[in-house]
UniProtKB/TrEMBL annotation, chains A, B:
It comes from Methylocella tundrae. Residues 88-224 form the GST C-terminal domain. InterPro entries: Glutathione-S-Trfase_C-like (IPR010987), Glutathione-S-Trfase_C_sf (IPR036282), Glutathione_S-Trfase (IPR040079), Glutathione_S-Trfase_N (IPR004045), GST_C (IPR004046), Thioredoxin-like_sf (IPR036249). CDD domains: GST_C_family. This is FtsZ-localized protein A. It holds the Pfam family GST_N_3.
Length: 230, 230
């Protein structure tokens, strides 16, 4: 059995949920508010960040890329030609490069600011940084996302999937970030038709369903969030 | 032939230099100031970050973890029992967890602030963020490093190397970060004897030599930086 400590708007957790869906695994989901620094969670993973995956009885796998590598190493061959980290070294470089691009660069320049300012700060006590959103950071993120949308359009326009001929971790990493921003209504889809067509293909996959059902108390997703014909 | 685009105080580049040293590879080093956003470098890697490794004629490998995985996949077996990413899945989780810990968490909480404030801002034009160091960030980094030193001491005190019985990427990732901070004289070695003993073992390895010879114009390393009996 697999348990995933996650948060609905943690993009890294969403990446792992998509990945598990593609492996055909339905995890037990435990929602973790990392800002609370819960003692039992810190014992599980001293870094105190979601996602943390537990494969029972006792294998603890923290962090999105370590989880992705672990699943490729233990279950990748079973996916055959649908393997999410392709076999040859050059394709693996490209998939990992894009995992870093979206999981680190896009996250740092877009998702982190939007989710922290618009959502997390509502639920955090003032002495730990909670309060009203810093609109300057929100505007910076909304400006930065355009560079990334152009890049997604470029990749999706020159390849079948973002890293090549096959769906890979790269698509899941990009879609995970975008789905968080889309929940908040901050993706300018109308200006990036090629990126939108690629995203609608990822969004239609069965692995995506549980993400589209995510709700947070007091926070409704943007109207097109769960719409497959957005 | 292998070329590495790096910067002497880029901790991620230092990790790759240590790794190459352990594989017995002496790369051609090209110093890259990423703040200049040089066109040819951005063509090589649109993320525009060091390190970027080129294996001639045409394999471009960007980013520390992608480089580490690439070398394990293409040359790991040749290292035999000295393989830097051990073979069994559980040990690989632990090594990757610690690579993330030092390469991301330690970097974000310590190295990035110290190097940016004390070094990079000197060489950057004012309109791109250059200027005097923000001493509040320097103090925060000097406070944060203590948590990490305790963690290194704990790991080094309970295992032979940071991730287990053998030297691994985890040791190189931790030493790379610490070596940058040590260059600036901001590691409180005297308070963390166990961490110091572990570091002196890594620092004595032949792979470390080129790091100890690093100099920057107008910036001398701290007195103990290159001293093996610090």
């Amino acid at each position: 059995m697999i348990t995933l400590y996650h948060h609905p708007l943690c993009a890294h957790s969403r990446f792992v949920r998509l990945l598990l869906g593609e492996y055909g695994i339905e995890p037990q989901l435990i929602e973790e508010n990392v800002h609370e620094r819960r003692r039992d969670f810190l014992i599980l993973d001293p870094a105190g960040q979601t996602p943390v995956l537990v494969e029972h009885p006792s294998t603890v796998v923290p962090g999105p890329s370590t989880i992705a590598e672990y699943f490729d190493e233990t279950r990748g061959l079973a996916l055959g030609k649908h393997r999410l980290l392709p076999e040859d070294p050059l394709s693996r470089i490209e998939v990992r490069r894009l995992m870093d691009w979206f999981g680190q660069k896009f996250f740092r320049e877009v998702t982190d600011w939007l989710v922290t300012e618009k959502v997390y700060k509502r639920f955090m006590p003032r002495e730990r940084g909670g309060g009203a959103p810093d609109m300057e950071l929100v505007r910076a993120a909304r400006s930065n996302i355009r560079t990334h949308m152009r890049y997604v359009s470029y990749l999706a326009g020159s390849r079948k999937w973002l890293a090549g001929d096959r769906l890979s971790y790269a698509d899941l990493a990009a879609a995970a970030q975008l789905s968080c921003v889309d929940f908040l209504g901050d993706v300018p889809w109308e200006e990036y038709e090629t990126a939108k067509l690629w995203y609608s293909r990822v969004k239609s996959r069965p692995a995506f369903r549980s993400l589209l059902a995510d709700r947070l108390p007091g926070l409704s997703p943007a109207p097109v969030y769960a719409d497959l014909d957005f």
